[in-house]
From TrEMBL:
Pfam families: Inhibitor_I29
Matches recorded under InterPro entries: Papain-like_cys_pep_sf (IPR038765), Prot_inhib_I29 (IPR013201)
Protein name: Cathepsin L1
Organism field: Daphnia sinensis
UniProt xrefs under SMART domains: Inhibitor_I29
Domain (Cathepsin propeptide inhibitor) ranges: 32-92
Alphabetically ordered keywords of this record: Signal
Length: 110
């Protein structure tokens, strides 16, 4: 019975990956590997890594587009990749939800 559940899980995950239609851009393979090393990224499964890669590719495309526009004088600042580049905007917001800096001054210890 257990093997049936494992098989079902593999089929579901495989179908999800196949149905997403995402194919990693080989032109950014090295950049993806540097991102994972620089920010010590590891993923629980191949499916999770593929999902993160898709999000990351969309985010770096936006970063690169913005920076090209900066060079054309359309923006006053540049953007850079950071450790959150493999998160959606919604995931990023939820990650920081409720984490506001304290307004109380920190006590000094002698």
């Amino acid at each position: 019975m257990r093997c049936c559940y494992v098989f079902l899980l593999i089929v579901v995950v495989g179908t999800t990956i196949a149905s997403s239609g995402f194919k990693p851009n080989p032109d950014v393979d090295e950049r993806w590997e540097r991102f994972k090393v620089k920010f010590q990224k590891t993923y629980a499964s191949d499916a999770e890594e593929l999902k993160r890669r898709e999000i990351w590719e969309k985010n770096i495309a936006n970063i690169d587009k913005h920076n090209d526009e900066f060079k054309e004088g359309k923006h006053s600042y540049m953007l850079a990749e950071n450790k959150y580049a493999d998160m959606t905007k919604e995931e990023w917001k939820n990650h920081f939800k409720g984490k506001k800096p304290s307004k109380k001054p920190k006590k000094k210890t002698a």
